[in-house]
């Protein structure tokens, strides 16, 4: 085994252990939490090794890098996630490769996904990104917008909304992150019960390298981990 593979496996073992601990602590099963490897810091070769180490869900946040990696790894059964801001003029080239689009942050993008789905006769799984931190530099819907967005979703036949995604505030540490994650879960619970019982909002995509154990304690079903996977490479 080469050094990169060995380092990746070590990092991965450490992360999986943290997932187990956080899940146990909150009475959840670790198998209900999907680890998504964010490969934006590494080459296609390293991303390939990560897949070979057992991480089949990979993510990118920028279209050009996404296209390149999807092409370089086309021989692998990667489930690709897109987690960054996506302009509508990049949608056509991006969407066909995407298993789950985490970052739908406007009604216009949502409608564009539906429109492209109609063109391609396909249906696309998405999450609605929510700005839970109130940070103006961040993308995402405000919580108050979601009832209207979900009303519109009901009329769209080529998108499947599977849940919500958020990024915690950069500042404030674990306590603030926990509040942001709890806010996403409470928002989901409210929407599911009172606004859109017909749309199954099962997924909560939240938590990155610095805060994924907290996100798991607050109900994350998908964690998006980048730098912690590649430490020491
Ligand atoms: C980069 C990125 C991540 C991973 O961040 P790390 O802190 O490196 O784990 C997760 N989500 C999004 C949207 C990102 O852009």
Characterize this entry briefly.
The chain has 233 residues and is α/β, with parallel strands linked by helices. The protein has helices spanning 3-25, 44-52, 63-72, 91-94, 107-120, 146-153, 173-195, 212-217, 227-230, and strands spanning 34-38, 57-60, 79-82, 100-104, 124-129, 159-165, 203-205, 222-225.
Radius of gyration: 17 Å
Number of strands: 8
Query: Approximately how much beta-strand content do the residues carry?
Result: 15-25%
Numbering strands along the chain, what is their spatial order in the largest sheet?
7-6-5-4-3-2-1-8
* Average pLDDT score: 97
Q: What distance lies between the first and last C-alpha atoms, to the nearest angstrom?
A: 15 Å
Helix content, binned percent: 40-55%
Written account of the structure:
The protein is α/β, with parallel strands linked by helices and 233 residues long. The protein has helices at residues 3-25, 44-52, 63-72, 91-94, 107-120, 146-153, 173-195, 212-217, 227-230; strands spanning 34-38, 57-60, 79-82, 100-104, 124-129, 159-165, 203-205, 222-225. The protein has an eight-stranded parallel sheet. Strand 4 (100-104), helix 5 (107-120) and strand 5 (124-129) form a beta-alpha-beta unit. It binds pyridoxal-5'-phosphate (PLP). Pyridoxal-5'-phosphate binds next to strand 8 and helix 9.
């Amino acid at each position: 085994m080469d050094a990169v593979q060995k380092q990746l496996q070590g990092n991965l073992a450490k992360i999986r252990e943290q997932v187990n601990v956080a899940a146990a602590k909150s009475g959840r099963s670790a198998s209900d939490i999907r680890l998504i490897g964010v490969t934006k810091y590494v080459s296609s070769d390293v991303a390939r090794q990560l897949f070979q180490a057992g991480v089949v869900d990979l993510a990118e946040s920028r279209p050009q890098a996404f296209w390149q990696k999807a092409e370089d790894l086309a021989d692998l059964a990667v489930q690709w996630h897109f987690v960054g801001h996506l302009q509508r003029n990049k949608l056509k080239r991006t969407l066909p490769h995407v298993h789950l689009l985490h970052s739908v942050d406007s009604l216009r993008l949502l409608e564009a996904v539906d429109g492209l789905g109609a063109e391609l006769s396909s249906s696309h799984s998405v999450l609605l990104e929510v700005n839970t931190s109130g940070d103006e530099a961040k993308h995402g819907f405000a919580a108050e917008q979601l009832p209207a967005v979900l009303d519109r979703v009901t009329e769209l036949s080529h998108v499947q909304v599977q849940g919500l995604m958020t990024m915690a505030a950069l500042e404030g540490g674990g306590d603030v992150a926990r509040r942001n994650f709890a806010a996403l879960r409470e928002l989901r619970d409210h929407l599911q019960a009172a606004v859109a019982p017909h749309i199954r909002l099962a997924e909560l995509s939240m938590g990155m390298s610095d805060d994924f154990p907290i996100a798991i304690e607050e109900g994350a079903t998908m964690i998006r981990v980048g730098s912690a996977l590649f430490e020491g490479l």
